[in-house]
Amino acid sequence: MNPKTNGYDSGVTRTESGARRTYNQYCGLASALDVLGERWTLLIIRELLMGPRRYSSLLADLPGVGTNLLAERLKSMTERGLVRQVQSDSGARMSYALTEVGQELRPMVLGLAKWGMEFVGPYSPGEVVRPHWGFLAVEAMFQPDKVPDRDEQYQFEVDDQVFHVDVRDGRAHAMKGPADAPAMIATVDAATFIEIGTGRKTPLAAMVTGKLKLDGDIEAVLRCCDLIGLETGALRSHATAG
Amino acid sequence: MNPKTNGYDSGVTRTESGARRTYNQYCGLASALDVLGERWTLLIIRELLMGPRRYSSLLADLPGVGTNLLAERLKSMTERGLVRQVQSDSGARMSYALTEVGQELRPMVLGLAKWGMEFVGPYSPGEVVRPHWGFLAVEAMFQPDKVPDRDEQYQFEVDDQVFHVDVRDGRAHAMKGPADAPAMIATVDAATFIEIGTGRKTPLAAMVTGKLKLDGDIEAVLRCCDLIGLETGALRSHATAG
DNA sequence: CTGCATCCGCCTCGATACTG
DNA sequence: CAGTATCGAGGCGGATGCAG
């Protein structure tokens, strides 16, 4: 509409001390991306969504980040109120935790994680996998309209990490740690777990190759698969056949 | 062997033709960010969420992007199946439109836009504003539990753009173009509209300074404000007083 | 050892010029 | 109008330094 003389400054805003690249747009999404859009930021938030983490722990689970960049991102996120430093439970060392504002990103992060499942290819050695990412994957895959009627728990043991899904009053929640009385226990390695989540591998196929072990009531297994949107046709017929 | 080039770089995957920086993580979010995380990509999707757009139109509404980068992003998004080229309604020229996969990003984009509202400061001349961003702002601000009982329409005229909210059967939808029978018409400039959305300015304050004009039933205005989460206390008392 | 800060090479980005 | 080509600047990644 206007010619190019509408007085903007080329999309880059610069200050004396910290040069920071902003979109310079008066818009909620642009402002959100000014905060979150730089490299690694949302992955750091993904890590912190599962609880407070130490600097070195973040560094270990985000290979390639570079220590200076991680420190700079954490500082920036702290200044903007997404992250705060908290006392680590064991000792006087500090951990980083999400603030309320940071926690508000959970639904969007989960939505992006689910959306991105479609772009996850077959697992290739050399790619980084962490078992606790399966926790978020399960949370992202919840089908709100498929929550079982009965209250029960499903436990997942992914590599060395244990978490469970708690179904209660028609709602499902993902929780860290073991369940009190799991109706089903799935034991699996992290890569296979993600691979099943993407739909590239069915639970049955993973069981056949020995990558996945399922203990407990077969009906509970099927309800759990329905809850997280996994295909159960082959598994169902296999169960009745076996 | 050169010690700097031994092995492979973690975090960077390189192919012969197009070098592309990926997180190299077997995770849905990381894959999503490999697709969406580069600069300008999500802002291009924001533009396309409101309908097909021409190349030059995108360029005009994304100042600072640089033509090469816009072309490269559109090509990449087309290859990945987020975007496709469609026939423009007027003439044989091509426009860019979101595919089904691209449309699936709407809730996450709206969520981020709403979240980012908190980081939008007061409007400073020099920042870019576009009236159609108000369309997305309204969509992002919908309070699903505050949809009015009665079916009605609210029309918004932001600079030269007209859109409306259609309330029907307990659901609200944002639509392009004028309403059939609007119960309320708001006329406002784009900057003020976003400023109200962020909560930095109340509708009443904007009316007093002449930036916002509200026509129609005062009760409809109040219902509309409730629907999009705007503070109505002062407006309500002002209406009864006047 | 943890939690950063500094330095350096490279790749992405942004602006301009240019072409069909 | 719809891009492609080019080039300088700076963000990013990796290695290293250093204080507590």
Written account of the structure:
2 copies of one chain form a homodimer. Helices cover 39% and strands 18% of the residues of chain A. With 242 residues, chain A is α+β, with helices and mostly antiparallel strands. In chain A, strands 5-4-3-6-7 form a 5-stranded mixed sheet. A two-stranded antiparallel sheet of chain A has the order 1-2. In chain A, a hairpin with a 2-residue loop joins strand 4 and strand 5. The N and C termini of chain A lie far apart (69 Å). The model of chain A is unreliable at 1-18 (pLDDT under 50). At the A-B interface, helix 1, helix 2, helix 6, helix 7 and helix 8 of A face helix 1, helix 2, helix 6, helix 7 and helix 8 of B. Chain B binds a DNA duplex (20 and 20 nucleotides) through residues 4, 9-12, 19, 21, 38-40, 54-56, 59, 64-71, 93-94.
Query: What does the largest sheet of chain A look like?
Result: 5 strands, mixed
Which chains have the largest interface? A-B, 61 and 62 residues
Give the number of domains of chain A.
2
Strand order of the largest sheet of chain A: 5-4-3-6-7
N-to-C SSE series of chain A? HHHHEEHHHEEEEHHEHH
CATH topology of the largest domain in chain A: Nonspecific Lipid-transfer Protein, Chain A
Shape of chain A: elongated
Architecture of the largest domain in chain A, according to CATH?
2-Layer Sandwich
Secondary-structure content class of chain A: alpha+beta
Number of helices of chain A: 11
Total number of strands of chain A: 7
Radius of gyration of chain A: 21 Å
Oligomer: homodimer
